[in-house]
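Hi there,

I know you've been waiting on this one. I reran it after we fixed the sequence typo, so this is the corrected version. Both the input and the resulting structure follow.
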Amino acid sequence: MALYILATLTPVALLAVASLLGGAWAWAALGYIALLTAALDESLPKPRKAKGNTAGHFVAKALSVVLALAHPVLIALGLWAIAGPSGLTPGARIALFLALGLFSGQVSNANAHELIHRKSRVLQALGRMVYIVMLFGHHASAHLLIHHRLVGTRQDPNTAREGENCYQFFWRAWRGSFRKGLAEETARRKTRARGLHPYAWYVGGAVAALGTAALIAGLPGVVVFVWLTIFSGSQLLLSDYVQHYGLRRGILADGTPERQGPQHSWNAPHVFSSALLLNAPRHSDHHLNAGRTYPELRLDDQTMPMLPHSLPVMALIALWPPLWRRVMDPLAAAWQPAWEGRGGVPQKTVLVPENGGLPRPALPSSGHVHTPQPDDPARRPARAGPAANPDERGGV
């Protein structure tokens, strides 16, 4: 747990000091998130397998609570420093804006995601609070009720399709998740109605957040806050875009999608960014075992697609669609369900890391390696593990 604490609380301290003192502290906060993390990812070993740590639950929970409570405080300090009479130089204000946006969209988003999956209603509420302050409250509903159930299908607004660039994805994902989350929450209230509609909390909380920004720094505070949430929201959507790009569940003979498996999410083995993002890059195991806490998440390059670079670096590459497609389309193509549409069924395979992460069937009993051809059904791994329960709210 020491690395998680160091990786996540260091930027909290840097952002707080930068908001008060500006100067080099603002650039240090930005450099930590944007540059140092990438450098450490490249220099530290990259474990291709990890079993996860089942100890330290109390510390893991406490860290998530601290990060959640720190989020609105950092936003308030940042708004005062960037838009208010803080005396910061224009350069320091820009650096602080970028650092705070990256922290909010990467660390706070990852932590809020962790919290909404927990059994405790208090922890779930903390996660929703963070998303509301990000003006992205509907994600707390859409992620649990829509994304986890429909991931890898065309019905999921947060699964990026092969060939779709991130700018096309942004609007489709935001609009689709808002609408489908609202429809699902409304339908659930017909049988489970109690209290305010969740979307009333999301919208009301957003209005309260905007009002608070006005109290802190007037109209400039509101403008900065809106742009800050747009920037942080783009980080959230980029994460979804990268982690599921081009990975779809095949359609079985009865017209239903195959069961979710480890092959339906991209993963990254980079140590430091994984600690900073509370193991969000271990995404396959999260979808298969959504109840696991972030230290427990596992990694296995024998069954899980691996990104060629860390999650933050891949998000940066995604901003340049031609480069993104040149890097990712061949990898995504190798994971398409080749058995689909020919009366086939998913085949169990293993991955061979020396083969660049491409799937290859296990050795047959004869001991000879079967090398799959482009149309070979054995090129694709099939389902593995149970489907994740999309609704973890209320004690699942």
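Quick highlight: The radius of gyration is 21 Å.

Best,
R. S.
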